[in-house]
Specification:
Alpha-D-Glucose-1,6-Bisphosphate, Chain A, domain 4, about 270 residues, elongated, disordered N terminus, 8-stranded mixed beta sheet, 5 helices, alpha+beta
Length: about 270
Amino acid sequence: MKLKRIKNYLPAVLVCSTLVGCKATPLPPPQVLSNMESFEVILPNDVVGNTKTWNVNFRPFQNGSREQGSNIYNYFSVDYTANTQTSELDISACNGERYPNGTDYKSCASYLADVTVTKKENHKILTITPKLKSLSRGGFLIFKPIPKMTIDKLYGYLSRQEITFKGNITSKFNTESIKGNFDRLMTRHSWRAGQADAAHRQFKDTYTLTLSTGEQVVISAGFYPYRDGSIVEYVVNSITQNDPSVRQVDWVKTSEEVKKHIEKVVNS
């Protein structure tokens, strides 16, 4: 073992040596949850994307750093594991440490939830209901602390979403006139290398729009002749931020506001 790595491990060894046998309190068994408040996601029928997550991309994240002189990366992460076969979603918050050789130790608090899908005429509703909470522990020499994951934090993590939906609008105006309206009334957007997904790459014109909620969406559009006028085909990408007070994310409202704005631009 290299001297530098020995120095990194030494504090943990000293702490461990002060504990009686380095024993830890046994973890409680998984906790069965009952009568839990559900979280709803309302999706328009024109939503597209990953069917393995019910067309909703729950947005995992990881924050971390290395202490000065250390090669150990300490981090906090939130991850989502969806299983559409069993209609279950696992949400895990973890404190972890990663070593240069790729070894990863982490301690986690996890919620397992049932997911039901209710189809309506113009939309569908995902209902996410937590049913089991479990804890796991890991670490080198000493365990990483298990995150305190309250039910409010869980709903905050569920509110971090990204979706893509599409639509089209016909108009009596020609394509040059409509594209001119987009360029004049909307803000052009430039993708970073590799950022645009396949749904957006089919269009060369991309714009941003700020909604009444302050949320900013990205719109890619194509302008084509259609009968005596033209048709505008568009794809929209939208995200939501972490909000522990939220119990519902209504993407139908977002879709309707975007469509109304595009119609206004088309007919300006």
